[in-house]
Amino acid sequence: MTTKNLSTLLLTASTLLVSFVLMSNALAHHGWGSYKEDIEIVLTVKELKLGNPHDRLIATDAQGQDWNLLMAPPARNRRFGFDETTISVGQKIELIGQRHPVRHEIKVHCLFTDGVAVYTYRYNSGISSLKRSGREERC
After folding, report:
1. Phi, psi of 105 (to 5 degrees)
2. CATH code of the domain in which 118 resides
3. Cα 83 vs. chain centroid, distance in angstroms?
4. Beta strand extents in the chain (DSSP E only)
């Protein structure tokens, strides 16, 4: 094998490897199909992780279990009024969502503080995730 052929082979292999890694990260989450179990739970906000690709909260339940709460992308959340001033670390939240079958992770449909809806997952059209999935609109 010539040096030119070896260089071409290494470049091709490297490109494929990088492409696979980038694609696997993108595909690791996209789609909510596996989030089927409805959950309503009270949690305490532990950390705000607001940024791309999705805003997230880390929150703890009464048993001390941490939950990763997935929300809409930041630009959409800001457009519909959710930002870092909406809730704060240490605050109790009531949540309606769908749980991941394996991980302690929830797709958030609605967040409430003191019985008031402070967040609703909305698609670009403005329709809520609950309404889009044919569920009763509760937030």
Report:
1. -140, 140
2. 2.40.50.140
3. 15
4. 37-49, 56-60, 66-70, 92-99, 105-113, 116-120
- Within a domain: 22: no
In angstroms, rounded to a whole number, what is the distance separating the alpha carbons of residues 9 and 113? 57
pLDDT tens figures, 46-96:
999 999 999 999 999 999 999 999 999 999 999 999 999 999 999 999 999
- Residue 1: CB partners within 8 Å, gap ≥ 6? 9
pTM of model > 0.85: no
Q: 48: how many CB neighbours lie within 10 A of its CB?
A: 17
Please give the tally of structural domains in the chain: 1
Look up residue 50 and give its two tokens: 């607001």
Please tell me the distance from the alpha carbon of residue 6 to that of residue 22, in angstroms, as a whole number: 24
84 to 59, 98, 115: CA distances (angstroms): 15, 23, 19
Q: Which range of residues forms the domain containing residue 109?
A: 37-132
Poorest-confidence range of 24-33, 95-104, 116-125? 24-33
Could you check whether the bond before residue 73 is cis, i.e. omega within 30 degrees of 0? no
